[in-house]
Structure formats: C-alpha cells, structure tokens
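Next comes the chain:
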Amino acid sequence: MRKDRKKVSQVATNMETTNSGKTPATRSPAVRSATIGVMALAIMNVTAVVSLRGLPSEAVYGLSSVFYYLFAAVFFLIPVSIVAAELATAWPQKGGVFRWVGEAFGPRWGFVAIFLLWVESTIWFPTALTFASVSLAFVGPDLKWDEAVAGNRVYTLILVLLVYWIATFATLQGLKSAARLAKWGGMVGTIIPAGILIALGVAYMMSGKPLQMEFAWKDLVPNFSNFNNLVLAAGIFLAFAGMEMNAIHVNELDDPTRNYPLAIGIASILTVAMSVFGTLAIGVIIPAANIDVTQSLLLGFDDLFAVFGLGWAAPIMAIALAFGVLGGVTVWVAGPSAGIATVGRAGYLPPFFQKMNKNGMAVNILVVQGLLVTFLSVMFVVLPSVQAAYQILSQLTVTLYLIMYVMMFAAAIFLRFSQPDTPRPYKVPFGRAGMWIFGGVGLVGSLIAFVLSFVPPSQIAVGSPTAYVGFLIGGNLFFLGIPLVIYAIRKPYWRTVDGTESFEPFTWEKEGRHPGTEQGTRPVATAAGSATKASH
C-alpha cells in the first residue's frame, strides 16, 4: 500500500518495457554488470511500500499494532518479496503477473490476475485522494475550520475528482513526467515526513508529557477473544503491498543470490520500523477513541508541532503530504494501465481499449478508468460519512489485491513442480521446501487477511453491517467476473500485429504442452504455433 504505493520503480520498469520491449532482467548473465547497489534497491523498496496514510487506522490498536505489523511482515511482506524475485527472474518477459499466473494456470487466469491489479488500483484512487484532500484542508490558519472542511463530503468529492483528472491528463503526456513526479513525491511526501513524525514522537515521549497510549507488555499481544480487533488489522497487508514491483531489478545486483535477500532484509526492517514508530507517534498524542482514519495523521502533526512551538510548519507538512499522494497517484494512473494495455494488444482486450496516443499511453483505458473512479468517488456523498466510504473502498481494494496475491503465490509453488527446468537466476532459498515455506506462508496469510476483510470493523461507523458485507461480496464477484467474461468472448481480430509480435508466447506454448502440465510431458497434438494462436 499502494499503501501510498508510490512506485518510482514501477514507472521505470514500465518505461523500459513500453519503449523497448525488454527489461533489465533479460540481459544475458555473461554480459550483465551490476547497475544497482544493495542500499539503492532497499531504498527503492521502502519508497514503493511505505505509506503514512494508513498509520492512523493501526494506531487505533495501541501498542498491539506492533504485533500486527510484525505479523504482516513475516506472513506477507517477506514472502511477497522473495517469491516475486524468483518469478521475475525466471519469466522476465512482458506481462508481469499475467505472465507468472499464465505460465502456471493458463492465460484465462493470468488475465484475471492482471485485471485485478488494474481494477484494485483504480478503486484505490478515491481513498488515496481523500487523504490528499484532507491534507490540503489543513493548510488554513484555523484548525477548527480546517477540520470542518476536511470532513465535508462535497469538498472531498470535488477535490478527489479534480486532482485525479489532473493526474490523468498529466499521464497522457507520457511516463517520463510521471516518473519525475513520483521520485520527488516519494521523498518530499513520504520519507521526509516519516522521519519528522518519528523524531517528534520520540521527543514528545522523552519530554515527560502525558501519553495517550499505554506501554505495558500485556498490551503488546492483541485480545484474540474479540474477533473485531482483527478486522482493521487485515488492511495492514495492503499497507505492505507492492514489494513485488521491484523484483524485476534482481538481476541488476552483483551476486543477486546473496545481495537480493540482504536488500529485502534492509528494506523490510526499514519499512516495519517506519510503520511501527510512525503509528506509535500518532498514538501517544491522540487518544484511540478520537482517531479518525482520514484526519488523524494531519492532526497528529499539528499537535506535535504545537508542543514544540513549530505550529508554522503544520501547513507546510500538509502540502508535502498532499504532494506525495499526487505523485503516487500519477504513477499508478499510468503503471497498471500500461500493463493491461500491453496484454490487451496481444489479443485480450477489444480494439477500443487498445488505442494508444502519440505518447504511447492507452488513452481509452485511462478514460474508462477515470469514469470508474468518478463513479466510486460519488460514494462519498451517498455513505453516512467520508470515513465510512474511505473504509469500505479501502477494504474492497484489499480483497481484490489479495486475490491477485493468492494467485501469485499459488503459481510460484505450482511452477516449481511443473517447470523445474526453467532457469531461475534467483531462487527462493532452501529448494522446494523453501518454496513451500515462503509461498505457503504468503498464501495462507493472504487468505486469512482476505477473510477478515469481510468483517465490519467495530471501531468505525460504516452504516449497516449487512450492506457493508454485501457491498464487499458483490464488489468482489463483480470485478472477478468481468475479466472472465472478456476472456470468454474474445475474438481473433482483437490481436494487433505489433502487440502480438512483441509479446512472447508462454513456455508451455513454445513446448507444445497444455498449461499446468510438467516439462518433459508429451506435447499436445497441435504445434506450438497453433497452440499459441488458439490460446490467444
């Protein structure tokens, strides 16, 4: 998370793929030279994953939030990073998660996976931009007035739509400008504010002032007898999502077998540390009962600045946080849309969605994405409060993203057995047992978080619990059904010449096998070329 999932490396990877059809991982090992250091990759991962936007929702749990962060790191963050590295180096061709899942289970499910990645990022936009609109509301001199403006649904809707469509029009100019905006947005809007928040929180605790959070060992482990305590914690998985985006750079490291796990370890420690201490910094100054998931980060900064006589810095911080969200949103307007457009031009989307402008951007996909964002944003007017809309859209984003992760982990495990001879420059440690451990832990962790996401949180008013659960179930079924229908009705004329020529067939297609069969099995009756044509 997305969560703000603000992906400098994703843009870089997409630019390389879009412009040349290749990625760094396609280099021959004989000529590959290290182009990135361990610390550089670690920082790229931190920038891609760390989000300040989700800190207040975890601060509700007090000291037990530390347990949830560690749980998510062990059962999700680390498995995603390691498993994605093996997949990215074994199958570095165009397609990303479409390629990985398609190699294991066929193009139908590969298309479902990449569609879910695109649609969950689309649904994520209103929630991320809500944070931006709240941030901008706090640039005024009157805190009471700022709070009132931030909680106004009409204001929120207008700002969300305005900023989103500005980002869309900027994206239509090409990926280069989006990459530049993401780089500075990540530094100014995430890393620097996180450091300031933690430093102020530590200083506040050392000042001897009263703390709003209890620090006792008994508060570290959650009360598992209260099932509702686990619900909001499921969202922390999404806050740690995105580490797979940088797996494509594993072959740019010197000695990737040693240095990639080292970079992931450093990034994971920094990610967890920034999340844990940032959450505690909010918790020590704002009572749990008063925490608002959309406003409390800004209020926390305001209170901490006021304690140390730095009230003048609060509006500056609000602008910085809003700028960070804008940079991340701009990247994610471009990234997943470019990915699904690449797959679509190979025969998986109707010609209408394949239209590219002179800057190489999928213009019609971006317009349709914008219309969907507009429709979802209207929920801020319909639901009881901005906070309720924020929560329900966040949970729908979580569930859709987790379905994709379940497919990714299942594909990684399956491919270790169905394609054991495929070269893997980087392999999950400890052989097949290691894949079962890391892939299995990630798979089970994702499934647990998925189930918990359907339980209405007791800490936040979301209107009718029945309507809340019904919306999530209906939303998942609806968005899961769309790619299945599109795949079922696809036509041969959907395949463009350029798109097909630049999209390499699956390994099982080239070997004349059915998807899911092991390497070395008897080829299917049709030739590999015919199999390729039929499957597409």
Q: What stands out?
A: The chain has a mean pLDDT of 78. Residues 313-348 form the longest helix (36 residues). The radius of gyration is 23 Å. The CA atoms of residues 349 and 494 lie 6 Å apart.
